[in-house]
TrEMBL record:
The chain crosses the membrane at residues 52-72, 79-98, 110-131. It holds the Pfam family DoxX. It is a multi-pass membrane protein. It is found in: Cell membrane. Its main location: membrane. InterPro entries: DoxX, DoxX-like_oxidoreductase. This is Putative oxidoreductase. Keywords: Cell membrane, Membrane, Transmembrane, Transmembrane helix. One of its GO terms (cellular component) is plasma membrane. Belongs to the DoxX family. Coiled coil: none annotated.
């Protein structure tokens, strides 16, 4: 049954704006506080990975969200957010994989949100309401 207000394109736009805008806040914070890259660099070093990978956070938290928001290569943007969150979980949050918060929520709720919505954008694409529709 199709409802009169049902729209795949509007749903995709809502998804894109949700993940894109919320992730972009994290990226803007990294731009305004570049010292946060030191923490990421140390985590990478601890796993025998090159410190230069820390700059990938700008790709995953600034460029990718802008791609998603505007709908320009949004599938690639979604994949970049997904990859960014894999790195974040492995480098920083892996000890919380099987934890709950004091309120009963999943310990990695925010990370899971970004991981899965990035993946959803990858699978769904931008829809018609985009600068460059998929």
């Amino acid at each position: 049954m199709s409802l009169p207000f049902q729209s795949d394109s509007l749903g995709k736009l809502t998804l894109r704006l949700s993940v894109g805008v919320l992730m972009l806040f994290h990226g803007v914070n990294k731009i305004l506080n570049p010292a946060s890259l030191d923490f990421i660099s140390k985590q990478l070093t601890g796993m025998n990975l090159p410190q230069a990978l820390a700059y990938g956070v700008y790709l995953g938290e600034v460029i990718a969200p802008l791609m998603i928001i505007l709908g320009i290569y949004s599938r690639l943007g979604g994949l970049l957010v997904f990859g960014n969150m894999i790195f974040a979980i492995v480098l920083v949050h892996r000890s919380h994989l099987f934890t709950l918060t004091d309120h009963g929520g999943y310990g990695l709720e925010l990370q899971a949100f970004f991981l899965l919505t990035g993946l959803a954008v990858f699978f769904l694409g931008s829809g018609r309401m985009a600068v460059k529709p998929d």
